[in-house]
Design brief:
This protein is α/β, with parallel strands linked by helices. The chain has two domains: about 260 residues, Aspartate Aminotransferase, domain 2, CATH 3.40.640.10; about 130 residues, Aspartate Aminotransferase, domain 1 (Alpha-Beta Complex), CATH 3.90.1150. It is built from 16 helices and twelve strands. A seven-stranded mixed β-sheet has the order 1-7-6-5-4-2-3, with helices on both faces. Strands 8-9-12-11-10 form a five-stranded mixed β-sheet. Helix 6 links the parallel strand 2 and strand 3. Helix 4 packs parallel to helix 11, helix 5 packs parallel to helix 6 and helix 12 packs parallel to helix 16. It is globular.
Length: about 400
């Protein structure tokens, strides 16, 4: 059933990103509200039995059940799609629901997936543990080298799956090169774009097929709700993905969709300011710690590539304090402003120890293979004054002798 967007696409297609983030997808009720309405309903009524039948067989537009459509959720989907430059979007209950659905909706036993090894811990669980249970072979590679992608392709390769910048190693994947290779081989490319969002990086412009998000992070931006999204062509979203989500139910609640809609209104302002603060803090830390991984700094080994496909490097980066877990935990425990948390993208600055939190399930050998050592820490820079954050980091470093 084709959706009625409720807006004149001849007008909206010319809107610039900041306007899209505030106005796209908006549908006003008869009350003329300025803020999007929150529709807390699980079902919908029909004027007659024939209308109900017509909606279910696709002859009539309209809502049937909130596992499939909800006015508030649909506004969010249309807004994210417009910001991404995608034909369509499907919102999900969480980022991992989005990642899982984007893979399983198009894979079956006997298929093959090539994935970059530097992924969020739960995404590595999908490639390493879940997909093989369904007879889907996976090959995990160092995605920074194009030759590795090409060598990993088999006649059964169906999907390329990667994240850039990667969590928490900040590996950068050459979007254009990898996506062009995928297109040439008839392979679907799925990009986890959560660290950048469409404000800083739009993978579809580089040839990507599907973009998956944890909207819990920067899109919400204040650590309030769980949400996810998958963007792509209308054919992929409405045919391949929708049948999967219709029957498995990774449904985003109307309330969470409304919160993310409010978050999107300030996303551009927040992520650019946080990116600026991250660079300032990164320059300070470069003089104090063993190593930092921030793509926006010339010291990052893939700085030029990152800046060629991103408008800014984002608010998240990693650092190595030296020593091991003892030193890393002592540093975290000495922080007075920055919170210890495994979340990212909040207005509050957050820091965690990936080896014992987000990536503990990988196992020591796999962690070390991708550079997640016991002295690595990941910081998500918030909207506090960067001078206060630097002072906090300075005293915490001093407490462990740095």
């Amino acid at each position: 059933m084709k959706r009625d967007t409720g807006q004149n696409r001849d007008v909206t297609k010319n809107w610039r990103p900041a306007t899209k983030a505030i106005r796209s997808g908006t549908r006003r009720t008869e009350f003329g509200e300025t803020s999007e309405a929150l529709f807390m309903t699980s079902g919908y009524t029909y004027d007659c039995a024939q209308d109900a039948a017509a909606r279910f067989n696709g002859e009539q537009t309209g809502m049937t059940y909130s596992r499939l459509q909800n006015p508030t959720v649909q506004m969010l989907e249309e807004r994210i799609a417009m910001m991404e430059g995608a034909e369509a979007c499907r919102a999900m209950a969480s980022g991992m629901a989005a990642m899982t659905a984007s893979l399983l909706c198009q894979l079956e036993a006997g298929d093959h997936v090539v994935a970059s090894r530097a992924l969020f811990g739960s995404c590595r669980w999908l490639t390493d543990s879940l997909l093989p249970k369904f007879g889907i072979e996976t090959t995990v590679i160092d995605g920074r080298e194009l030759d590795n992608w090409e060598r990993a392709i088999t006649p059964k390769t169906k999907v390329f799956f990667f994240e850039t910048p990667a969590n928490p190693t900040m590996d950068i994947i050459d979007l254009r090169a990898v996506c062009e290779l995928a297109r040439a081989k008839g392979i679907t490319s799925i990009v986890d774009n959560a660290f950048a969002t469409s404000v800083l990086q739009r993978p579809l412009e580089f040839g990507a097929d599907v973009i998956a998000y944890s909207a819990t992070k920067m899109m919400d931006g204040q650590g309030r709700v769980m949400a996810g999204a998958v963007c792509g062509s209308e054919e992929f979203i409405e045919t391949t993905l929708l049948s999967f989500t219709r029957n498995t139910g990774p449904t985003l609640s109307a309330f969470n969709a409304w919160v993310v809609l409010k978050g999107l209104e300030t996303l551009d302002l927040r992520i650019r300011k946080q990116s600026e603060s991250a660079l300032e803090i990164g320059r300070f830390l470069e003089q104090r710690v063993e190593k930092i991984l921030l793509p926006g700094l010339p010291s990052h080994p893939q700085h030029d590539l990152a800046m060629s496909q991103m408008e800014a490097a984002g608010p998240i980066f990693s650092l190595y304090v030296g020593g091991g877990r003892k030193e890393a935990h002592a540093f975290l425990n000495a922080l007075k402003v920055i919170d210890i948390s495994n979340n990212i993208g909040d207005t509050r600055s957050l820091m965690c120890h990936p080896s014992s939190t987000t990536h503990h399930g990988l196992g020591e050998e796999s962690r070390l293979e991708i550079g997640i050592s016991e002295d690595m820490l990941r910081i998500s820079v918030g909207l506090e004054d960067p001078a206060d954050l630097i002072e906090d980091l300075d005293q915490a470093l001093s407490s462990i002798g740095l």
